[in-house]
Amino acid sequence: MILVSDPPRCILFKASLKKERPHSTANLLDRVTEKSTLSMAPELKLTYFDIRGRAEAIRLALHLADIPFTDERLPREEAMALIAEGSLPFHALPVLEVGGKLHAQSLALLRYVGKLGGLYPEDCGRGNGCGQGRWCSNYGCEKRH
User: Is pLDDT at 47 greater than 90 in this prediction?
Assistant: First the structure.
């Protein structure tokens, strides 16, 4: 079954970001809006089981960046048949079809979508630092030298 994905809680999340941290997120949200016009972007189709699982973060990033995509959610039987067929990279889901070419590995897909939508810094060093900073701020780590 192919569905055009509706934004779940992303719109509310986006609005709450503006309210909670207007100075730090306003520029990010403006960049997302600018970069997500995507007039030249290829058509995207995300394929995964009919559950949240490893594809949910990718779906949320696509919604947050307002990137149009097709969300293909397969029943278990269809997904297992597709995997057994051997046409998937790494014989696993999720996969993101970008302009007719299949790409795999959920974290790589998430990073790609983040860069496509302007949610991830272009500088690799800053990107890794941002990831570490978010991890530490979420779990109360202290910066160690």
Answer: yes
Residue keyed to tokens 């297992």? 80
Q: Which amino acid is at 121?
A: P
Cα–Cα distances (Å) from 109 to 32, 59, 97, 128, 129, in that order, read 17, 10, 10, 16, 19
CB atoms < 10 A from the CB of 20, how many? Answer: 9
Cis? peptide before 94, omega within 30° of 0: yes
DSSP, collapsed to helix, strand or coil, labels residue 32 as: helix
Let me know: does 116 contact 67? Beta carbons within 8 Å.
Answer: yes
CA distance 27 to 113: 19
CA distances from 36 to 52, 66, 67 (A): 24, 6, 6
List the domain boundaries for the chain. Answer: 2-139
* CA gap 93, 83 in Å, rounded: 8
pLDDT of residue 124: 58
Statement: residue 144 has pLDDT above 80: no
Homologous superfamily of 2-139 in CATH?
A: Glutaredoxin (3.40.30.10)
